[in-house]
Design brief:
Length: 371
């Protein structure tokens, strides 16, 4: 089996050495080269044809964002993972890199120290993302194709859940969203495609603190709805989107006005805090059959248990299809478990959410294999 070919781009000799060291022990990954700035990286990408490029943000000659733009302009199809510091400034630059065409990011260690500790931390965060982004075969081994088009993979054999069960076809009173790798772009497409919903939306995106606040601000600028990072204690309002803050679980509790948000720092669930399962489970207890849950692109299976809770309460579950997902781990786990009422391409999810929140879906024609 061919190994995943990785190019490491960073102006720091120490950082390059630690990233190379962190990946060297993984038998599925091969570091094929290193570059000290974006200009060198552009040359090496053309020569080495890597599957994945790890990209530093701040570099002389040509920085990370410029390099990402240049790579996408010329049609390079390799996956790009940015390295970012944990600060508001760097979080903003990270979203600029994602908008330019980067696929995901990891945070840098607080200090690059040669030796085992830094390499182990980098390996823990970086290697799983590399393997999730190239799960079937290295891109360099696939036939040449349009870099902008996703690799088409079907969802044949997926058993869809029936609905309505207890809901009688009534509109949803709340929407909960869960996503991880590739989720920023997916959330932007879904939320920007719809007007202010007459129901509240709550979402979990696996991101560290600071980055979730920048995500909320980024989405708020692009969407008709009011998007904010939850501070806890908010009474849910229609047309508002509440983002779970990094490092905190977001739950819902019933209140005299309907429902309110609760934040806590309980143990990670599925190695995640915030966790999709935690949000979905609490929302199912509050809204029951009047809840719509949506699972978008992401690695792992966070959202599977929560979707079970939603279905058990009589609610609906929509998931993004494999062809339009950057990584089909989270939505795939839900779909393969037979919990999804609809499996939809990303461009159809916004419309399906609007329909579920504004009118009965009983008797409505199915779309993209949905029920």
């Amino acid at each position: 089996m061919s190994r995943i070919r990785v190019l490491v781009v960073d102006d720091s000799v120490v950082a390059r050495s630690i990233v190379v060291q962190s990946l060297a022990a993984d038998p599925q990954i091969e570091v094929v080269g290193t570059a000290a700035n974006g200009r060198i990286a552009l040359t090496l990408v053309g020569q080495l044809k890597p599957d994945v490029v790890t990209m530093d943000m701040e570099m002389p000659v040509m920085d990370g964002i410029e390099t990402v733009r240049a790579m996408r302009r010329r049609g390079d199809r390799c996956r790009i993972i940015m390295f970012s510091l944990v600060s508001a400034h760097d979080a903003k630059k990270t979203f600029a890199a994602l908008a330019a065409g980067a696929n995901d990011f990891v945070t840098k260690p607080t200090s690059w120290v040669t030796g085992g500790a830094s390499a182990a931390r980098v390996a823990e965060s970086l290697a799983p993302k590399i393997k999730a982004l190239v799960p079937y075969a290295p891109l360099s081994s696939l036939p040449r194709r349009d870099a902008a088009a996703p690799e088409r993979r079907g969802t044949a054999g997926i058993r869809l859940a029936s609905w309505p069960q207890q809901g009688g076809g009534r509109p949803a009173r709340a929407v909960v969203l869960g996503t991880s790798m590739g989720g920023s772009d997916a959330l932007l497409e879904v939320l920007a495609s719809i007007d202010r919903l007459p129901v509240p939306v709550l979402l979990v995106q696996h991101m560290p603190p600071i980055f979730t606040r920048q995500l909320a601000e980024w989405l708020n600028r692009a969407c008709m709805s009011t998007v904010l990072e939850s501070a806890g204690g908010e009474e849910l309002e229609p047309g508002h989107v509440y983002v779970a803050p990094g490092g905190h679980h977001l739950e819902l509790k019933a209140s005299a006005r309907g429902a309110r948000t609760v934040l806590h720092q309980g143990p990670p669930v599925n190695s995640c805090r915030p966790s999709v399962d935690t949000l979905f489970g609490s929302a199912a207890r509050v809204f029951g059959a009047d809840l719509l849950a949506v699972v978008l692109t992401g690695m792992g299976a966070d959202g599977l248990r929560g979707s079970e809770s939603v279905v058990a309460a009589g609610g609906r579950v929509f998931v993004q299809d494999e062809a339009s997902s950057l990584v089909w781990g989270m939505p795939g786990a839900v779909a393969k478990a037979g919990l999804a009422n609809q499996v939809l391409p990303l461009e159809q999810i916004g419309g399906a959410v609007v329909a579920a929140a504004t009118r009965s879906s009983r008797g409505r024609a199915s779309s993209a294999g949905g029920v």
